[in-house]
Amino acid sequence: MTISTNYFSGRATKDNQLILKALDKIGFPNGTGEGYPEFVKEHFPWAIKNAEFMQTVNTPEKARAYVEAHLDD
């Protein structure tokens, strides 16, 4: 699971606890928020290039299944 797939899938679940687990996996929150705005900004180009992946997790249920299957990768 890449950082961006983890981030996008976690957010797509709309489950705050799972979102926090996904963010924790990629190093956020780090207690200060440092680096997060830059990460989000850098995520947008990834999203544009990976529309096909995004379609595979386009519902909260599909996103949850993906995150749960790959959170420990």
Task: Write structural notes for this entry.
- There is one protein chain.
- With 73 residues, the chain is mostly helical.
- The protein is built from five helices and no strands.
- Helix 1 packs antiparallel against helix 2.
- The longest helix has 14 residues.
**Gyration radius, in Å:** 12 Å
Basic shape: globular
Helix content: over 70%
H/E element order: HHHHH
Q: For the terminal residues, how far apart are their CA atoms?
A: 6 Å
Query: How many individual helices?
Result: 5
State which percent range the strand residues make up.
Answer: under 5%
Give the structure's gist in a few sentences.
By secondary structure, the chain is mainly α.
Please give the structural blueprint.
Layout: H1 3-13, H2 16-25, H3 36-49, H4 51-56, H5 60-70
Task: Supply database-style keywords.
globular; single chain; 73 residues; 0% strand; mainly alpha
